[in-house]
Amino acid sequence: MRRFGTGLFLTAYGLYKARAAFERLVPIGLRYRESAAATEILLDYATERNHAMTPALSVIVPVKDEAENVIPLAREIAAAVVGAGAAEIIFIDDGSADATAEMLIHLRGDIPGLRVIQHGRNAGQSRAVRTGVRAARAEIVVTLDGDGQNDPADIPRLLAVFRETGPELGLVAGVRRRRQDTLAKRWASRLGNRLRNRLLNDGATDTGCGLKAFRREAFLALPYFDHIHRYLIALMLREGYEVRYVDVAHRARTHGASKYGVWDRALVGISDLLGVRWLQRRFRGGAIETREL
To answer: According to the CATH classification, is domain 23-281 in 2.40.50.140?
Structure first.
């Protein structure tokens, strides 16, 4: 077992596939290269970041080739978080080959809190979420999918649970009702959730829902690996945090095509499950009361 930065590498399961090189924010137009992962990431900003003003909420949206969806989705998010106080909306363009980034850049004049971060190559949804969380400035982070199937109008309902609960709450997970997916995807998801729940015993029924709200510091404390976004519930419980669930809407995709197939997820799922199960067994978990002497 070796540790590099914040990433943990396990040879037994090949679980940690993405290196955690130091990622820092740079002004518009500049690039840097991760020394370990050799991945270029270009960061764009709408305005100068005011470090003296911390937003109350950061909304993170990973996208790839969603040029037709991002403008209506960004406007819906902006309308949904009006009552949440100062909010920033961070879109992570994960190596799109279409005009996704350009569409978002043109929209920044209409949505002052909009930020656009672009990966130099496709690195996957979990890596995009992680990039967004590391760039986020708020204590509470909300994620949702970039295809428009998650309804931004549900965001205030997730945030309300945080307002009603103490610091022991780490994650509020959306549970999709009346899913607007193909029958094959729904059945595959149902079988996958049952198998995962049997092995991990996390009580989750819909780990594939992209709409989640969590504490930024809690997420960054988790060991990173590709596809971690599907195991946040189990890993938050492992760290001793409480997890709550909220029923949310699910909408049909109106433009573009899904980036995932049934078999894509199944092939990597077994390895991921074994790895997360190993993590559960190798941690003497739960919150520990500490004091400085």
So the answer is: no
